[in-house]
Amino acid sequence: MNLEYFIAKRLITAKDYKSSISAPIINIAISAIAIGMIMMIVSVATGIGLQNKIREKISAFNGHVIISNYDNNQSEITLSPISKNQDFYPKFKSVPEVSHVQAIASKAGIIRTESAFEGIIFKGVGNDYQWENIKEYLVSGRLPNFSGNVNLEVVISQFLANRLNLKVGDSFNTFFIKEDQNQLPNVRRFKITGIFNSGFQQFDATYIIGDIRHVQRINKWAPNQVGAFEVFAKDFGAIKEVGEQVYEKTSSTLDTKTIIEKYSYIFEWLQLFDFNIIVILVVMILVATINMVVALLVLILERTQMIGILKALGANNWLVRKIFLYNAFYLIVRGLFWGNLIGISLLLLQQHFGIIKLNPENYYVNQAPVYINLVYILVLNLLTVTVCFLVLLIPSYIITKISPVKAIRFD
Question: What are residue 274's phi and psi, to 5 degrees?
Answer without folding.
Answer: -60, -45
